[in-house]
UniProtKB/TrEMBL annotation:
Family that this chain belongs to: Belongs to the aldehyde dehydrogenase family.
Broad enzyme group: oxidoreductase
GO molecular-function term, one example from the UniProt record: aldehyde dehydrogenase (NAD+) activity
Annotated protein name in UniProt: aldehyde dehydrogenase (NAD(+))
Self-association and partners: Homotetramer.
E.C. designation(s): 1.2.1.3
Active site per UniProt: E261
Span of domain Aldehyde dehydrogenase: 31-487
One Pfam family of this chain: Aldedh
Amino acid sequence: MTLPGTATIAGSVTDALAACGVAPDRIGGDFATRTPITGGALPGATGDDAASIDDKISRAAAAFPAWRDTPAPVRGNLIKRWGELLTEHKADLARIVTAEAGKITSEALGEVQEMIDICDLAVGQSRQLYGKTMPSERPGHRLMETWHPLGVVGIISAFNFPAAVWAWNTALALVCGNTVVWKPSELTSLTALAADALLGKAVAEVGAPADLHHVIVSDRAGGERLVDDPRVALVSATGSVRMGREVGPRVAARFGKLLLELGGNNAAIVTPSADLDLAVRGIVFAAAGTAGQRCTSMRRLIVHSSIADELVGRITAAYGTLAIGDPEAEGTLVGPLINEKAFEGMRRALDEAQAQGGKVRAGGERVLADEAPEAYYVEPAVVSMPGQEAIVTEETFAPILYVMTYDDIEDAIAMNNAVPQGLSAAIFTGDQAEAELFVSSAGSDTGIANVNIGTSGAEIGGAFGGEKETGGGRESGSDSWQSYMRPATNTVNYSGQLPLAQGVEFV
Ligand code: UN1
């Protein structure tokens, strides 16, 4: 497969940035950006320094009272317009996502669709910021709960979903009446500028306060400022467990609120009654799709010993047909790894797996290295393991699927749960009792537990996140909006008397 030249990619990125309305002064700076498609340089971005970061947080804090006091359904109008602009510029934004994150076009378009979907959800949510009322134990009293905005929400996001994860957080944070400061991955600054510019257009068109959103182009120092700034009421951070370990205690030390969505080490159990055609498709998308660079990517397969050979044979055959290369080319299913570090991580994991008794059954080799020595394309790997060895319990952000066998469903569930991470899991089975057990409290300990679909590709309607080292936060649908607000309990006394609760007598 021939790869496009860096100049061609940079040209189409420049056009797409202009179409999204990125201000010319934000491009051409010395904050380096590159494309994993060739490893070559894209137009630089204009970086932020300590003073400009401080200024952005100050402005977002100053914009908060006016936005807080704007009725929630009116705040929803902003998100409605933003969703329309995302629909209009879907292809432009997807092109930048592909150029900067290396996602195949279909997945890049899917990422923008996910942004549009959360906008739809958030618009509806703007009329449903429900609080409960409870019966008071005292006559002539009303007990109720009201939900209020927090202030500035700081968002830290990763390269692999360079725009959608920000949108999940931002759409809800804004309808909930907060203002937002975003620190995207330094690997995807251009996507961030384009995504933020579209929000900026919507803000200007509906007449919302201009300072209610800001994006910081910076390395980790920018993220640290956001984390440590007491004006940032909530830090929502998506990324590695290592990052979460640093962010968590720092935010907790100043009693800020936290929403963490960290690593996954997602498994699928395949039982003897599973529809194997369906299972293979679900497994290959989840394990090889996005070149294994989703936090929901499938990294472990726990298969019943009676069907292990057949299933692994079918998966390796399917892997042999995966087109690897230019993510924008028709038919490509696996684009590049993000950078050399990711490739080294994959190589190290494969070495360790073999040292721990693993056998590579498919893939694992680098391809297209002659054509693009600074880009890192790999064949997704399938590795049989004797058991759940140390390397299998780590999240390696690359397409490696470790295969283990089981004989007893209880053991399979125990293996599913025997890793430090707890994001997503799946069972492929035709047996209803097994499926129910898997999704029960005695089943998978993950935040997402699926039946007869893979571990990745969640819809935005459900809450997204997981337990243990995944950090415990929930973003996106269901009641996740509550993370962006503070509840207040109100007791209203209209009795003209002052009875005390719990029967206490006083004056
Ligand atoms: C991530 O990888 O950080 O469920 C987010 C999925 C996507 C989101 C992934 N909807 O795979």
